[in-house]
Amino acid sequence: MDIRPGNAEQLGATPIADGVNFALYSSVAERVELCLFDQHRTQVSVDLPALDNGVWHGFVPNCEPGQRYGYRVHGPWDPEMGQRCNPAKLLIDPYARQLDGEFDWHGPVFDYVPAKDGQLKPCAKDNALFTPLSVVRKPSETDIRRPSVPWAETIFYEANVRGYTMLHPDVPEADRGRFSGMRNREVLAYLKALGITAIELMPTLAFIDEHHLAKAGLRNYWGYNTVNFFAPMQRYGGPDPVAEQREMIEAIHDAGIEVVLDVAYNHTGEGDSTGPILSFRGIDNLAYYRTEPDAHARYINDTGCGNTINADHPRVQQLILDSLRYLHADIGFDGFRFDLATIIGRHSNGFSTSHPLLTAISEDTTLQTAKLVAEPWDPGPGGYQLGQFPDRWAEWNDSFRDTVRRFWRGDKAKSGALAQRIHGSSDIFESRQRPPFASVNMITAHDGYTLADVVSFERRHNEANGEENRDGHQHNFSKNYGVEGNTNVESILAARYRQRLNMLATLLFSQGTPMLLAGDEFGNSQGGNNNAYAQDNATTWLDWTNVESDRSFLDDVRELIWLRRETHLLRLQDYVHTTSESTSSDATFDWFNSNGERKSNEEWASSRAFSAVISENGSAVALLINGHAHPTELRLPLLERSWRQVFSSSESDHFERDSESMTLDALSVAILLADPS
Q1: Which CATH number fits domain 151-271+309-570: 3.40.630.10, 3.40.50.880, 3.20.20.80, 3.40.50.11290?
Q2: Catalytic residue numbers, as ranges
């Protein structure tokens, strides 16, 4: 095979006029073999001939897009010192745009064999038949036309490509579980009618099933076990997953909806020191991963997944930035939700808001229009950092989730905390000069109960995960209203229905950016499993028959979403305060007790019935809340206004126009509007 020095600046496999440039960073390699494969997996190998600044590179004339390849890195094998080079193992290019073939746990996928003395010895068996091959891709020339929805108008909708389409009656069998299923005409029509503005897809980048799941006959459903930060997951995309993913995004864009991708840059599927070798470990272990300072054989495990990406290394920072640029500018994603995002802001001595990687992402010109959303916590020391991310970022707000659940299930002294969450969690974000959109408000997400399960289960039911029901959250702040799980008792079903509506009405009334979990709008249940990461089956696949059986609830949710979209006071771009405190805005946010008087600080501890009123230039919107277990009369504030009821979670709640008060049923909410006179 003819090969000559290439370009060290173009990492990955880059097709140019008459061949392909290959470049791989490894500061520890002594040789790097480029291995090319034909359709029968016959291998031809040649050494990359040039080395510049730790980048091995070579140009192969007459090589074309579609070529399958991998690397074998020759270098030090010394696990005690954190060195894991093993040329017997074919490695995935960290910059590969596509992968071909499945990872197979039955092959020699480990780079070591255990010895009697407890030390690891290098495994000499070739793994090429058991690991995916990298594929050369031609650069995209797609013209991306984005909906570009402003933050203040954004409503997120979290979904899983497989779970959303596997049981959808209008998705053809061949498209179920794939990107092509998500661009189905009926699926897009449903999303558009629902009123959400951005679908947040759970990870679609290439990942593998964990070893313990494979041995148990289970599969990773969530996708947070990434092995490459560019290539799409093959099972989602058929023969050409890159093109199919682009086509999905284009179709969703045409429906006026943005597409945000959940990315897990915090760890990889190579796991702990006894895990498999796929890519990073065999290329430059100490560059890509954080290890214990005095014991490099052991990985720091701030993620709880076996390893932790080394966000302090310049080449890791470059890799993540290049991945984001590619996914945004070439593939078309409109933004990113960063799983365990504190990892990419963590130095060896802790998290920093001004970490170079966070700063680089925030200031990158290619990413200037991308929405950035952090999951602001991880299991490591000092891992909870809600409110601490840079200005451009929004953050998942678990305080909103927990407060809303606890108030509506009847926990004491939660009214004041609920008011703070409805106000957009200004106590968390405003002091750092962050806008309301920075708070991504949610009741549920993939991790935990669905909304139907929040009102149906008080104990987790994760037995199917194979961990003796020890996994998942213990504190779910849920209530079953008399029966654990399914029931036909009408009074219990009515209570559950109303509480689901109460929580979603609170979510969509609150300042900030709301996020719904797919299926919550029609009662989707996971049978009480609150950690269904391993359930790629009917447990997690949306049961679309519920659309008809829970039609009235779906209609109510659509009404709430469209009410939010049509009422600008529910999505203010800046924090506003009470009439007495407001100095910089015509808008005000006031709180009233059941007598229609402004609430005093002392009342928050005991009162569970109150009104929140947002006003501006004569217009106003009011949320009336009765958190008591009995009907309660609320006198309306600002009696000079003419109010009209636009929503209620109870059929018995009815407001007569121009009335001075309204009696709310037990555990219910109502929303009123007042137009300028």
Answers
A1: 3.20.20.80
A2: 339, 375
